[in-house]
Amino acid sequence: MGITSFRSKAVGYGITLLLVIAVLHPFLWIIVSTFKTEQELIRYPPSFFPDAPTVMQYVSVWTRIPLLDFFRNTVIFAGGVAVLSVFFDSMAGYAFARIRFRGNRPLFALVLVTMMVPFQVLMVPLFVEVYKLGMLDTYWGLILPRATSAFGIFMMRSFFVTLPKDLEESGRVDGVNEFRIYWHIMLPLCRSAMVSLGIFLLMNNWNDLIYPLMLTSSTGMRTLSAGLAMFVGQRSIEYGATLAAAALSLAPLVAAYVLAQRYFVQGIATSGLKG
User: Fold this and answer.
1) How far apart are CA 223 and CA 71, in angstroms?
2) Structural contact between residues 224 and 206, judged by C-beta atoms closer than 8 angstroms
3) How far apart are alpha carbons 179 and 187 in whole angstroms?
4) Dihedrals φ, ψ of 137, to 5°?
5) Residue 108: CB atoms within 10 Å
6) Is residue 249 a contact partner of residue 95, using CB atoms and an 8 Å limit?
7) Terminal C-alpha separation, the chain
8) How confident is the model at residue 84 (pLDDT cuts 50, 70, 90)?
9) Above 80 in pLDDT, residue 110?
10) Count of other CB atoms within 10 angstroms of residue 49
11) What is the rounded distance in angstroms from the CA atom of residue 34 to the CA atom of residue 50?
């Protein structure tokens, strides 16, 4: 029995180690490649470690593009969308999950249907709308169209459904209005779901390319993803500078996930349950 248990654990640990290597290998390759020269990056057969490590790729990125401006724009855009969308999505999710009103189910079904509409279908009307409102090449023009999302509403509703109904019923008996029930009673209980949704939104908007590229025209309003496109030419790609900039843009997302990992895992585990 002991030998069988040891073998099964060894096999499990071995498979886990292989999966960890497979997942981390692309990220490690990016980090290590940023210390290579352009000649080493395109050399065949490729080598994992650089012959002579250099930081010239980072120096090139820092001197050739306004990296701090790109970081600032990305933080304002992705962070603003995450904060506003979590707030509005939680309000809508609470309404669909806990408030009975006429058309609740058809309206929620309509919200879910919008998830099946490709963004490419909305690109032209969205551009025209933002242009008519005079918000092209502005932070509000980037943030407001994404101030809410069907996925966020669906996720927050799934979480609110799992909470016991006695919580808001006791508030209604005490004469508390609906917004105060949502704000003071229900919202503190869904912290993990809000953090999970915030990380999803932050990650998606941080890495988005087409959307900010479409709604901005000046270099000073570019986000990181749109700024990295400057290293990709029509006939050539500067792999070293692109990888260095990608590594720098990846660091804040990794830090955010590490800091909020506990809430993220808890939110994913509970938001799909139904009470």
Assistant:
1) 7
2) yes
3) 10
4) 65, 35
5) 19
6) no
7) 40
8) very high
9) yes
10) 10
11) 9
The CATH classification number of 65-234 equals 1.10.3720.10
Report the range of poorest mean pLDDT among 68-77, 157-166, 250-259: 250-259
- What six digits make up the tokens of 47? 């080598």
| pLDDT for residue 274 | 46
Distances (CA, A) of 209 to 96, 161, 224: 32, 34, 9
Q: Quick one: tokens of 57?
A: 């790729």
Token pair of 73 as six digits: 């724009």
Q: What ranges do the domains of the chain cover?
A: 2-58, 65-234
Amino acid code (one letter) for 11: V
Q: Does residue 179 carry a pLDDT above 80?
A: yes
Nearest to 139 by CA among 199, 205, 183, 58: 205
The structure's pTM equals 0.81
Q: How many helices and strands in the chain, by DSSP H and E? A: 15, 0
What region does 236 belong to: left with phi over 0, alpha with psi -120 to 50, or beta? beta
